[in-house]
Amino acid sequence: MFLSFTFLLTLISSSTFHDNHTPPSTKISITNHNIQSFTNAGIGNNITGISQFKRYLSRFGYLNPPHDHNNRIITFSDEFDASFESALIKYQRNLGVQVTGKLDTNTVSEMMTPRCGVPDTKTHHQHNNMTKMHSTKHFVYFPGKPRWSRDNDMPITLNYAFSREYMIHNINMQDIKKTFKRAFSRWSRVIPVSFIETEDYSFADIKIGFYSGDHGDGEAFDGVLGVLAHSFSPEIGRLHLDAAETWAVDMDGTKSEVAIDLESVATHEIGHLLGLSHSCVKEAVMYPSLRPRDKRADLNIDDIKGVQSLYGSNPNFRSHWSLGSDLSTNHAANFGLHTLIIAFIFAQFIHIVL
């Protein structure tokens, strides 16, 4: 873990924060010199830089911002107080990190890992349906369990389109389209919802684009790494990706150490479009973070159960999990029959001998 953390710290440091400006709330700026002071911090300590962790936890829904006596929002302090410890514990539980209530290496590493911009839990600032979440099992819904629907209900077809104005050019457009087609098909295989690309962007159910910085939806992008993308609950249908990232469709042909797998992020964001929020299962597509050069595009059983609880199952879907159960059942049945036959033969043999 220490080696991976150090490597991640090097990537973040080399990609961002070349000036003395305050980093955005979505990024953690630390050095090898001050990491030890954070990991050793506890309630009552006042350490320069604690405020950035508070801003981060506030941005993703774990900590309410401080207010003055006139109820105006003020800046976070650098004190490691009880409310900060409580927020850390909630974050660690929600992300499946060992619960310590400290800024330990695992926790700081997770905070520094690039992630989706959708908050994990109830948040004080609620933009465009990015609001409190309703949790069931490990998968999580948006409030009210919104989903796409049509007059004849299921099955339904949604069309999607790419913005011609907000697009990246380091990847061939056909490769981008193929990548998203695969990402949509991962979800359509498990639910009775199909996705069809259309050229009519203005009337598309789902609108996809790559944007930079403040792009008018209240959730500005933060440059390389940090927040990778965000999307909105049904039936808003907007999927935004940070144009500053080094997006990749083939890691074997990409040398950049900060490359981000487009298919993994696309599959994750489509999950939000369908009504799922973040999962605490690290193997799930809906887990909020993704390290550079990693790929996590295959739906986990948690993703499947979550989306099927909203839309039902695709009648043609049969998972290897259920197949495994069937095989185990058949094996058990065959074993029982085999045992019964042996017992019968043995009984007959005893009868003949006697």
UniProtKB/TrEMBL annotation:
Gene Ontology cellular-component terms listed: extracellular matrix
Report residues binding Ca(2+) 1: 245
Per its record, what are the GO molecular function terms?
metalloendopeptidase activity; zinc ion binding
Where do the annotations place Zn(2+) 2 binding? 116, 268, 272, 278, 286
Mind telling me which Gene3D superfamilies this protein's record contains? Collagenase (Catalytic Domain)
| Signal peptide as annotated in the record | 1-17
Keywords, A to Z, come to:
Calcium, Glycoprotein, Hydrolase, Metal-binding, Metalloprotease, Protease, Signal, Zinc, Zymogen
Paste the cofactor note. Answer: Binds 2 Zn(2+) ions per subunit. Can bind about 5 Ca(2+) ions per subunit.
Q: Which InterPro entries match?
A: M10A_MMP, MetalloPept_cat_dom_sf, Pept_M10_metallopeptidase, Pept_M10A, Peptidase_Metallo, Peptidoglycan-bd-like, PGBD-like_sf
Domain Peptidase metallopeptidase, chain residue ranges per copy: 144-313
Q: Where is the active site?
A: 269
Does the keyword Signal feature in the UniProt annotation? yes
Q: Which domain of life is it from?
A: Eukaryota
Q: Which residues form a coiled coil?
A: none
Q: Which PANTHER family match?
A: MATRIX METALLOPROTEINASE, METALLOENDOPROTEINASE 4-MMP
What protein does this entry describe? Answer: Metalloendoproteinase 4-MMP-like
Traced from the root, the source organism's taxonomic lineage reads: Eukaryota, Viridiplantae, Streptophyta, Embryophyta, Tracheophyta
